[in-house]
Amino acid sequence: MEIKIEKTFKKSYEKLPKEIQDRFSEKLSFLMENFQHPSLRAKKMQGKQDIWEASISDNYRITFNIIGNTIILRKIGTHDKTLRNP
Questions:
Q1: pTM of structure
Q2: What is the CATH number of the domain that holds 12?
Q3: Residue 86 above 80 pLDDT?
C-alpha cells in the first residue's frame, strides 16, 4: 500500500510525545503491509462513510481513508479528540 499524509495529520504528529511518534513508526509498517493487522485493531468508524480508525496505543488513535492502493492518513491524537472529529 502507498501512504499519503494529510496536512492535519502531519501537524498533529509533530506535536505528539516522542514515545508516541516512535510507536506510530512501528505501527506504520503494519498499516502498509496489512491495515487489518491485529495490533492495529482497525475498524470502520460508525456513521462515517469510508473513514477507518486504528490504535497506536491505549490512548492514541489514527484515522484514515483507503482509496484503491492508497491509505490517506487523516488525523492522529488522543482517542477522544481524534475520534470526535476524524
A1: 0.89
A2: 3.30.2310.20
A3: no
